[in-house]
Amino acid sequence: FCLSCLLLLSLWRHSSGRGKLPPGPIPLPIVGNFFQIDIKDIQQSLNKLSKVYGPVFTLYMGMQPTVVFHGYEAIKEGLVDHGEEFSGRGRLPGLDRINKGIIFNNGKRWKDTRRFTLMTLQNLGMGKKSTEDRVQEEAQCLVEELRKTNGGTILYLLKNTLYILILFKNISNSFGLPCDPTFILNCAPCNVICSTIFQNRFDYKDKNFVNLMEKVNENTKIMSSPWMQVCNNFPAIIDYCPGPHNTIFKNFDYVKSYVLEKIKEHQESLDEKHNQQLEFTVDNLAVTVVDLFGTGTETTSTTLRYALLLLLKHPHVTVKVQEEIVHVVGRHWSPCMQGRSSMPYTDAVVHEVQRYINLIPINLPHEVTCDIKFRDYLIPKVRWFLLCTNIITSLSSVLHDKKDFPNPEKFDPGHFLDKNGNFKKMTTSCLSQQGLACMELFLFLTTILQNFKLKSLTSTTPVVNGLVSVPPPYQICFIPV
Fold this sequence. Notes:
The protein is 50% helix and 9% strand. With 481 residues, the protein is an alpha+beta fold. It has a 5-stranded mixed β-sheet. The longest helix is centred in the middle third of the chain and has 32 residues, at 282-313. It comes from Nannospalax galili (Northern Israeli blind subterranean mole rat). It is found in: Endoplasmic reticulum membrane; Microsome membrane. GO terms for molecular function: heme binding; iron ion binding; oxidoreductase activity, acting on paired donors, with incorporation or reduction of molecular oxygen, reduced flavin or flavoprotein as one donor, and incorporation of one atom of oxygen.
């Protein structure tokens, strides 16, 4: 063991001449800085390290060299001012088996697939009025499904005494029946993706549809768990040890097989050209669609769950939003994106939810595409043992920057309002606040609040805080207005 440590130290010193990496804590052989990071709350560890080593510092995730950008200025300088040099996709060893699609891909293959996917989604109506129509239609279906959560027990009591029925009806009208909204809120954004890609939506009780979302939801929880952080630091675990990571691969295969069946149904009208070099194959198409489900379903539904949870905890905010909805939209018209400019407080609430929950604290890792001089450092593309240099961006440090957001730990829509109550767009706004995700959040949330009062109260502390922050399970009462 001592000889191995000396050998690794020697190799590290020898390779250090290839690049002057930013400062950071001294890594141990093999395990790197693993024991200096709290895998249950990586972001807090990064905050502490940034106070010691500055906004740009180096960590070793196992033997993987990783440069961390902490704070708005460092992230902007890296990902915007030097966007091309830092545009590579970093490695997540725990998910290396899924080496296609647009999330866990890299290099020219990733760029070609991403370009093709964006072009195809635009051709299918993404970003156009037809997309808003789909979201509005699904918002009404969501409301109808939520209405069912309030009346099921009354029908049962109807078979008993009329007295109990009247008594319970009075109680339910005041308090409602509690339910866990997780599944229903998962259905809505998933159906938007389905209606865009498959050209049809599914009933919320469709067996295949239910199984599909259960797999996607389970994978998100596992990928955000401390266990997956261990797997990403020590890839050997993946091949030789049992664990939840194997469930990810099984669930992925299930969703992929479901998508392949859908592809076969559309095979007659599919313009397919097999091109091995550009990776335009049926297999890559299936993985890309699976990625769209992951990015377009779970992130939006999780944000919606957090939004309702925060509104329960801050009823005064809920009241102001509902008053604005009634004033601008009324009770009988469906909310639309055109009316958003006339609803500055509601728009601010949607943005503040995204800021406050810090859904993806450290983003997916990037990778340098070439040796680059950044500030006073030289970051090499390839470090020792032929490992590329990963780049981690602390989005949490941006969304909780005290310069832009006074009292960042407090949920306050005023962060996005000026002195006159007009919506104020921040330069540090998260990228996820754009496009389809923002449209869905605004339309789903306003439609729910237009039709229901909310009752309940519980904690807003995330259950897991790894790749994605996941809210705790909770019960909520949707009381029809």
